[in-house]
Every structure is written in structure tokens, then in C-alpha cells.
Specification:
Helix content: 25-40%
CATH class: Alpha Beta
Order of helices and strands: EEEHEEHEHHHHEHEHEEHHHH
Oligomer: single chain
Number of strands: 10
CATH superfamily: P-loop containing nucleotide triphosphate hydrolases
Strand content: 15-25%
Number of domains: 1
Radius of gyration: 20 Å
Number of helices: 12
Distance between the termini: 48 Å
CATH topology: Rossmann fold
Low-confidence stretches: none
Largest sheet: 6 strands, mixed
Structural class: alpha/beta
């Protein structure tokens, strides 16, 4: 179920002194089963992009297609959009509000037409995927958990709907290292199982390790788009655009500047480790 943007523009507060163009004629296609990382400076249009794809905003110009259908066409079934796309916004834990964990995670399923048994199974599966013991937490208040746990509970509410496309805005921001790694591994598992993932992040290292493709926005337009190794290997261009390349790529650059023959397309930790061990074997 590919996502396609055709010449999409979006302007906030048009015709006022606060008018601001967030996206400007953006065209982009995300294929089924891809894991795409989205980067760019603050204000480049990243968050606007995911709100448009999720149908929360309507473009000022252009089309957004899901499986070939314009999601903003007056005849389009918006329920289809809600079933197929799951969105995790930055700091989703602030949206927790139900009296129990189970009720909160199940909230988004209320109009799916599922039986009680199907809903309960989806809630259990989502919580366990996020590392919770269902029986231990299902009847507790979601507000009584730690910040990182609340984040995982909120994400469980999105995963319970079993979306085919998962869109995330800075999902690992504020998580401790263990929680961050566990969540990124979960995304890998979902992606291997066929879920299409579009993830906004300022963490170049996280995207280098997990995304297959990198899209970089600048001033609402597409600046770069290509395989992860290809985009991150152009260290000078990333620096010029004010976008960090990550610790691995910075290490590679320092080694290369000192005459160490490390391939320029080394962007992942295991690649760097292999290259270094190969140069200086025990």
C-alpha cells in the first residue's frame, strides 16, 4: 500500500501576517514495506508532512494518495485511512486519559467493528510487544507509570490497531538507552513482518542503524532522498545543510582524515567495527 505525494504544498494561516509555507510542491513516494527515515532542521516541514499523510491536515495544493486513492477526495472512506495508518506523535504519553491501561490501549479500536475477544487479544498483544505483563498492568491507571513506561503504553494504543503503515515523530526522544534500543528493535521486527515505517528523528545514529532510506527536507522541499549509506556517506553535504551525520559517521570521517582506509559508506556500528577489526586484527 504505497504512499504518494504529488506536488504537495501546505501554508499555515494563509492571507494573514502569520502566513507560513510549510511544504512547497513536495513529491515523494514510500513503497510497501520500506523503513524510511525523515530528517531536516526544525521548521523544515517534517511534522506537517506526517499530519498531511495521516489526513489531519488538507494540502493547500497537490494530492496525497494511499494505494492510488486520493485521501482528500470527498468520496474517500476516511475509516480506511484510520485503520491502515497509525501515528505516534512526539511525547504521545500526554494523551493518556482512561481509567485503566486496558481501556486506554483499546480506545482507538472502538469503531473497528471487532468483537470484544478480538479487541482484548489486540490489546494484550500490543502491551506484550512493548514489554508489559498484561495481567499485571491491565487494570492499573496509566497515569501511575514512569515517563518511559507511559510512552510505551501510548505507543501500544497505536499498535493495537495493527496498522499497515506506522508513522512516528521523534519516538525515541527522552527514552533511556535501554528503552530506546528495545523500541527500535521492535520497529525492526514490525518492518520485517511487513509494516511500512516512516520515522522522523534528529538521531542520525538511530536512522542509520534502522532505516533503509533517508529523506531530508529543507524549507518544505525535498533536499535529499536515497539509500541510507548513500545519503550519510556525503558527510560534507550533511554538514553544509546543518544536519548531523551521527557518531559512527563522524568517527569514520576522523579516521579517514588521519589516513585510515575506512569505506566512506560505513554508517552503521557493526560496519565500523568490522572495518576497524579488519584493519587492526588481533
Amino acid at each position: 500500500m504505497p504512499i504518494e505525494l504529488r506536488g504537495v504544498s501546505y501554508t499555515y494561516a494563509p492571507g494573514t501576517v502569520y502566513e507560513s509555507r510549510a511544504l512547497d510542491g513536495l513529491s515523494l513516494r514510500v513503497r510497501d514495506g520500506e523503513f524510511v527515515g525523515v530528517m531536516g532542521r526544525t521548521g523544515c516541514g517534517k511534522s506537517t508532512l506526517i499530519q498531511l499523510i495521516a489526513g489531519l491536515l488538507k494540502p493547500s495544493a497537490g494530492q496525497i494518495l494511499l494505494d492510488g486513492e486520493d485521501i482528500n477526495d470527498k468520496h474517500y472512506d476516511r475509516d480506511t485511512l484510520r485503520r491502515k495508518i497509525g501515528v505516534v506523535f512526539q511525547f504521545p504519553e500526554i494523551q493518556l486519559f482512561e481509567t485503566t491501561v486496558a481501556r486506554d490501549v483499546a480506545f482507538g479500536l472502538r469503531h473497528f467493528g471487532w468483537t470484544v475477544e478480538e479487541k482484548n487479544a489486540a490489546v494484550r498483544e500490543a502491551l506484550e510487544r512493548l514489554g508489559f505483563d498484561y495481567e499485571a498492568v491491565c487494570d492499573k491507571s496509566p497515569l501511575g507509570f514512569s515517563g518511559g513506561e507511559k510512552r510505551r503504553l501510548a505507543i501500544a494504543g497505536v499498535l493495537a490497531a495493527r496498522p499497515e503503515i506506522l508513522i512516528l515523530d521523534e519516538p525515541v526522544a527522552g527514552l533511556d538507552p535501554l528503552g530506546r534500543d528495545a523500541f527500535l528493535q521492535l520497529l525492526d521486527e514490525l518492518n520485517r513482518a511487513g509494516t511500512t515505517i516512516l520515522m522522523i528523528s534528529h538521531s542520525a545514529d538511530a536512522l542509520a542503524e534502522h532505516a533503509q532510506r533517508i529523506v531530508i527536507l529543507k524549507d518544505g522541499q525535498l533536499l535529499r532522498d536515497g539509500p541510507t549509506e548513500e545519503v550519510f556517506s556525503d558527510h560534507a553535504a550533511l554538514k553544509a545543510d546543518g544536519i548531523g551525520a551521527g557518531q559512527v559517521r563522524e568517527t569514520v570521517e576522523l579516521l579517514r582524515q588521519r589516513g585510515v582506509d575506512i569505506p566512506a559508506d560505513t554508517v552503521r556500528y557493526e560496519q565500523l567495527l568490522s572495518a576497524v577489526c579488519g584493519r587492526w586484527p588481533r
